[in-house]
Structures are given as structure tokens and as C-alpha cells.
Amino acid sequence: MGMWRDVKTEPKQPPRLGGNRAALFAYVIAGIDVMAFFATGVSLVTYFYGFMNFSITESATAVTNFMGTAFFLSLFGAFLSDTYLSRFKTCVLFGCIEVVGYALLAVQAHFRQLRPFPCKDVPLSQMNQCESANKGQLAILYAGLYLVAIGTSGVKAAAPPLGADQYDEKDPKEAAKLSSYFNWLMFFLTTGALFGVTFVVWISENQGWDWSFAVCSIVVGFAVLFLTLGKSLYRNNVTKGSPLTRIMQVFVVALRNRNLCLPENEHELHEIQDKEARYHTEILRKTEQFKFLDRAAINRTDQEASTSNAHGPWKLCTVTQVEETKIVIRMLPIILSTVFMNTCLAQLQTFTIQQSTTMDRKIHKFEVPGASIPAIPLLFMIILIPIYERVFIPIARKFTGIPTGIRQLQRIGIGLVLSSVSMAVAAIVEKHRKSIAIKHNMVESAAPLPMSVFWLGYQYAIFGLADMFTLVGLLDFFYSESSSSMKALSTAISWSSLAIGYYTSSIVVSIANKVSGGWLANNNLNKDKLDYFYWLLAGLSVLNFGFYLLCASWYKYKKIDMNPEDEMSIV
Fold first, then answer.
1. How far apart are the first and last CA of the chain?
2. pTM score, whole prediction
3. Strand ranges in 232-291 using DSSP code E only, listed in sequence order
4. So where does this one cross the membrane (predicted)?
């Protein structure tokens, strides 16, 4: 009995928290969330057009709005995660919302009275029964759809930083594992997406949409349940108030102190010291950029400073708080310079699937579904990510001395270069596809061309490699560079680049059509000038890379002043 009492009184639980074992739970929920979301996104046009009687234009617009909204709403999920909820609670709450959304879509797809009589493949004798969805049916559709968007946005915002929180940035050994975490996160996201565009898409085409949505609801529910099983292993973030409020305080106080002179000695600026510093994970060093914001940390020496409210958060800010604001400002040009790559991604996803419908998609007797074409780059990424992690990083580390092999901004830049190359390759492949159509007199034919769909694998493989560099680089960059109080928000900012890319994709097509006189105006790709459009995207990508180089060279990495107690804990 005494031995049992001794065992119970000396469990050393804190050292066992976090690490690879805890991060595994974040990998799983992030991967399954992407599996369901990606499978829905790539095939939703078919559901809208064939079962909800939307027009082709309405279907494409509805899908674009859904995808863009899901990524944009991650900012809201991140705000809740950083301000009120922990990452774990955010994942559970929004995961449950996502489960309800898929379940509602499954119910509508199952019961015919909840959707209109389908127009797809309807004989001419029954065309009079074909009608648009009524308000009630649309209400159910959009309720389910945007519950999914809200749910997946919260999971996307909180799951990646939840896994990253399991590694201590102040510990050199664990800090080296942080970059590897984002590489393996990308591996799980890619694996989930691959299952989505193959297994889940096959279910929707062969078993029905009700089964497809139901499977998504069930697997996401199991992922949330699995996440709760690891609760005792997590290092949970402590919410420190709204990061947006902290940023606003800096601007308000800096404006209020605009007429004050900055002290010659920067140590005279306000900063938390000694005992109070123990409650903060990091103290940021002052940088020289945006010096007008430093006025928010000026200790006032006039009569007002003697009052009790002179040191409130809206009257005086710390240097660390000012630097947090500067970091966000420095990040904005970086995220804007990656938007165009995601615009290219949206175009590639749309037009490549359309190209695939004109090509030979058979492998022996099996015909590859059009919605499963994105599996090509996903397969390449699943192969390349472990090679990058196990081969490239160790070799690069020997030359650069950087634990991650190359810096995050260098990694993002490589991805932007590859995206430009991908667009050029896409133009060459499309030119070849059109030449085959002309050679075989099949310009007006709906029959598949004698050209394998795997020709599209070249452009997809290169873009997949670009995505591996850029997306992982962005996630790692924003998480590492942001302060501890806005980790989820910074992760959501990287997702917002995808959202803007999806929203602007249709604008780019409209402008290109108008200026060119109708490169993409026909409903026949064999007559369109899609290859010209791809060359345009390649050229604009080069210009965008030049803009990125300016932004990256201007960016200053954050510097942390570690507390003595933190240094002792590392030793």
C-alpha cells in the first residue's frame, strides 16, 4: 500500500507532455479533415449541376465561393483559438460543426423530396419535370454546405498549431523537430487528399452522394473522437486575450504619442522585466523598422504619468507588443506575394479537369474519373515529401548550417519559381493536345483524343512540388515568426492566401477573356487558346516572383531575448 502511495505521488507528467506522440493526433484530424473537404470540393460541381439543377456557371461560382469562404473563415477560428479557446477545444468544437454539416448534406442527398427532380440524363419526354431547386431545398443545401465551411475552417486554423505547440521552440532539440513537423503535416494532408479524390470520389460516383457525405461525416466524427483520446498528452496554449486588440492598442497609443520624441537609449522604452517576465514565453528585441510605432512604448514623464490609469493597455504598450505588431505588418507583403500562385492553382485545378475530359483516361479497362485527376500531383508529393525530409534537408544542412536546411523564405521562393515553370509546361502540353486534335480531325468531336491523360501529370507534378515548398514554407514561416499569442492567427493567414487565390481566379479569367478578345470564350477547348492563357500565367508568375524577392529581402526575422530562467531550463 505504501509502495502504491509512493508511485502515485511522484508521477513526472509535465516532461512527458508534447512531442511526436502528441503531434500524431493533430496529424490525423488535419489529414481526415482535408480528405473530406478536398473530396467534396473537387466533385461538388457535379453534384450542383447534376442533382441540384444549377447551371454550369452557377455550379462553378458556388464551389469557388464555398472553397474561398472555408479558407477565409479560418481567420475567425484562429481568433477564437488565440483569444478564448485553446487549440484543442477549437478543433473539437468546429469538428463537431463539420460533422453536422456533412450529415445534413447526406440527409438531403438521400431523400428525393429534399432536392429537385434531377435534370441530368433525363429523357426529352420527362424534361417538363425538371425544375430549379426551391427556397427550402436551397436553404438545406447552403446550411449544410456552410456548416462544413465553418467547421473545416476552425480545424484548419487550430490543428496545425496544436501539433506545432507540442515542440518547444526554446529547446534546440525540439526546435529542430518543428520544421520536420510541418513537412510531415503536409504528408498527412496530402495522403488525406489522395484518399479523398480516389476513395470518397469513387463512393459518390458508384454508391451515391448520400453515402459520400455520410462517410465524410462519420470519419470526421471519428477524427474528433480520436483527438480527444490524446487530451492528457497535449501542451495546451494559454489564451492571452485578443491579438487584434493588442495590435490596435499599439496603433492607438503610437498615434496618441506622435508628438513625443523617442529616447536615445532604447532600454528606456517600456518592457516587462524580472518577475513579470516569467508569465511571458518570449521577450522580443526592438527592431529599426516602423519606428513610429515605438512611440507606443514611451514612458510618459509628465503629470499624466503619475495617475493610476496612465499605464493601462490603451495608454502604454511594451516593446514586445510593438514588435508583435511590426511582425504582422512585415508578414502582409509576403502573404500577398503568394496569392497569385494560388490563383494559378485554382486555374490548374479547373482547366486540367476539363482537359482530362477530352483525353484518353483509360488504364486497360478502368477509366479514371475526371474528379480523380488531382491524384496525380498528390502521388508525386507523397513520394517527394519523405525524400525532402530525409535526403534534401540533411544535405542542405551540411552546407548552410541551418537546422531546416534552408530558411522558410528561401523555401517559399523555390515554390514560386516552380509554379511559374509548371504554367509554362502546362502551356506546352496544351499546345500538343490541340495539335493532336487538329491532326486527327477531332476539333469538333466529343470523343476522347488519342492522347493519354497522364500527359497532364507533368504540369501537375511540378506544381505539386511547388505546393510542397510554398505551403509548408508558409505554415512554418508564419508559425515560427509570430508571437506566442497569435500562433493560430498566423497559421490562418497562410490559409487566407488560398482563399484570395480562389476568389480572384474567376476575375483573372474574365479580364483575360475581355482583353484578349475571347481566348477562353468557346465551350470547346479544342478551339480555345488555353495555351496562350497558360503562357500569360507563367509570365505573370515571373513578375510575381520579382515582387516576392523584394518583399523577402525587406523582411527582418524576429529576435528573441530569452529570460535567464528559460536559459537555465534549457540547460
1. 37
2. 0.79
3. 283-284
4. 21-50, 62-80, 92-111, 139-159, 180-203, 209-230, 327-348, 368-388, 409-429, 458-479, 491-512, 532-555
